[in-house]
Specification:
Elements lengths: L7 E6 L5 H12 L4 E8 L5 H8 L4 E3 L8 H14 L4 E4 L8 H6 L4 E5 L11 H8 L3 E8 L9 E8 L6 H24 L3 E4 L2 E4 L2
Parallel strand pairs: 1-2, 1-4, 2-3, 4-5
Antiparallel strand pairs: 5-6, 6-7, 8-9
Helix pairs in contact: 1-6
The structure holds 5-O-phosphono-beta-D-ribofuranosylamine.
The site of 5-O-phosphono-beta-D-ribofuranosylamine (GRF) has 12 residues, from helix 1 and strand 5.
Length: 207
């Protein structure tokens, strides 16, 4: 049943392909999620996610860091846009810029990210390859709240992905992305249903 509480307004931040944006958008089209994606923001003018958003009829915004005097000025501009558009939740989906502590403090527990490993293992931009090269037998994906440290905030959901001996790196990438596309919409759904309760590092999911 759709909640009678005010629907959540989401902004997706992405720098590239946007397959996670697509998965979340598609899920929201076919499930009763108490929210909508109101904006897609990118730091890259030619990011494919912008085409996906336009096709979905969602407003887009491109802001290049180079047009700002310093990093925090960029985040201040973004924060002003979020506030002007009454955004409740910021969904990072392959956003290749680190948010400043100023921004993460201002939007505490209102920014989520997906990372392609089982955090706290294999932080950073090469989570899939690093796990593959390390030889772990199980990796996975993590959705977490974003705080001021890289790939660090309280964990909302995780899903394991076994690495079979026969897998190439490309096989693993495919499995990880498929797992992401199932897990991220679920986390968004929980947030929009106001089911996530954060206590320190622990995130409870209310029934
Ligand atoms: C995903 O693998 C995600 O885990 C990472 O960046 C990638 C984005 O992919 N943070 P896409 O742009 O959503 O296809």
């Amino acid at each position: 049943m759709i909640s009678n509480k005010k629907p959540m307004r989401l902004a997706v931040f992405a720098s590239g392909n946007g397959s996670n944006f697509q998965a979340i958008y598609d899920y929201m089209q076919s499930h009763e999620v108490n929210g909508c994606i109101s904006l897609v923001l990118s730091n890259c003018r030619d990011a494919y996610v912008l085409q996906r958003a336009k096709k979905a009829g969602i407003e887009t915004c491109v802001l290049s860091v180079d047009d700002f005097e310093h990093r925090q000025a960029y985040d201040q501009r973004i924060a002003a846009i979020m506030e002007q558009k009454n955004i409740d939740l910021i969904v990072l989906a392959g956003y290749m810029l680190l948010l400043t502590p100023w921004f993460t403090n201002r939007f505490k527990e209102r920014v989520i990210n997906i990372h392609p490993s089982l955090l706290p293992s294999f932080k950073g931009t090469q989570g899939i390859k690093d796990a593959y090269d390390y030889g772990v037998k199980i990796t996975g994906v993590t959705v977490h709240f974003v705080d001021s440290k890289l790939d660090h905030g309280p964990i909302i959901l995780q899903k394991e992905v076994p690495i079979k001996a026969s897998y190439s790196l490309e096989d693993l990438e495919e499995k990880i992305h498929a797992a992401e596309h199932r897990l991220y919409p679920k986390a968004v759904h929980y947030f929009c249903s106001r089911r996530l309760v954060v206590k320190g590092r622990k995130v409870m999911i209310r029934e």
